[in-house]
Design goal:
Two copies of one chain form a homodimer.
Chain A lengths: L5 H15 L4 E4 L1 H7 L4 H11 L6 E6 L5 E6 L4 H11 L6 H13 L5 H10 L10 H20 L2
Antiparallel strand pairs in A: 1-3, 2-3
Helix pairs in contact in A: 1-3, 2-3, 4-7, 5-6
The first copy, chain A, binds a DNA duplex through α3.
DNA sequence: GCTTTTATAGTCAGGAATGGTCAAAAACAA
DNA sequence: TTGTTTTTGACCATTCCTGACTATAAAAGC
């Protein structure tokens, strides 16, 4: 079998901690986490910045020194608001990674269900647009994505 | 003795892995496969693009970096047929009307829910593709549609 | 109080571990 | 021979992991 990246294990652990909490946030110690997963402390920062970023709907606060901690909370935003923010942050052109990131974020924040997000990722992937090149490809991609998102929030 | 092409051996292996899985998809590592079949890693990409393409009813997702993988999924059997028929009748190019008609039909036959169909119509409308012209526009439209539909009916 | 020590966390650049693309060579089929 | 499919390798892109260095807060000593 294939080995799961440590980063994913840590992310799962943190997510579970948030889910299990009654306050809606997890308060953890960086060094303790690093010890638990046998990694260097800075990997925790990597996990936080790639998996619990503001774009993904999380807020992270921390404190250094004795008794220091990291607090990770899920931020709630209305679906419509999230989509509007996503639309705002998209320019006139978007590469495949940008489109996918946007969609994954919407999916993870519960705005789009997984299947829908995956369909949209397929629609905006390089494979679907492979006969286009460079700037034009990225422009069309952005256009398609925007049209889909607008359609999504238009009753 | 007649020697079977390595590509076919790899394709068979992947197919078996999908069939044997309970989740309906196989998650494999490119480098491990290459090692297993004593070929260069890029041959795996060749196998994927010639044997597990959307046209053949598969969707492929992957991730790079440590713990990276390739996930190959086969479409849902039930929805597959109507989608494949739709794709067959569309061909390599489709105008906006043809795309929309196809999607409305799929929506009415219950393969797609209304919202999803509407988003797909938005993605393939002339408005979304306005910077393209003529035959190219219709080809891209067909490609996008194909990728969305196959993705949608994949496991 | 002020300074020093200790206990945390943060940043960043680079190395390692994956997968992707493309074009050319080789093998095969018609 | 000629056209297609397979095989290969050089180069690229992305994600993860690590360690040296930095920053901040609390506690201890004065």
């Amino acid at each position: 079998m294939n080995k799961t990246a440590t980063t994913d294990l840590i992310a799962n652990f943190i997510q579970s901690a948030i889910d299990a909490s009654t306050e809606g946030f997890a308060e953890l110690q960086r060094s303790a986490l690093a010890e638990m997963f046998s990694c260097v402390p800075s990997q925790i920062n990597y996990v936080l910045s790639t998996r619990f970023s503001p774009e993904r709907g999380f807020s992270v606060e921390s404190r250094r020194g004795g008794g220091g901690y990291i607090r990770i909370a899920k931020v709630h935003e209305s679906a419509r608001e999230s989509v509007m923010n996503a639309l705002d942050s998209l320019g006139d052109a978007a590469d495949a990674t940008a489109a996918e990131t946007t969609l994954r974020n919407l999916s993870e924040s519960g705005v789009l269900d997984k299947l829908t997000a995956r369909m949209m990722i397929a629609a905006t992937g390089n494979s679907a647009l492979k006969s286009l090149e460079g700037e034009q490809r990225d422009q069309i991609r952005a256009s398609i994505l925007k049209h889909m998102l607008v359609s999504y929030v238009s009753e």
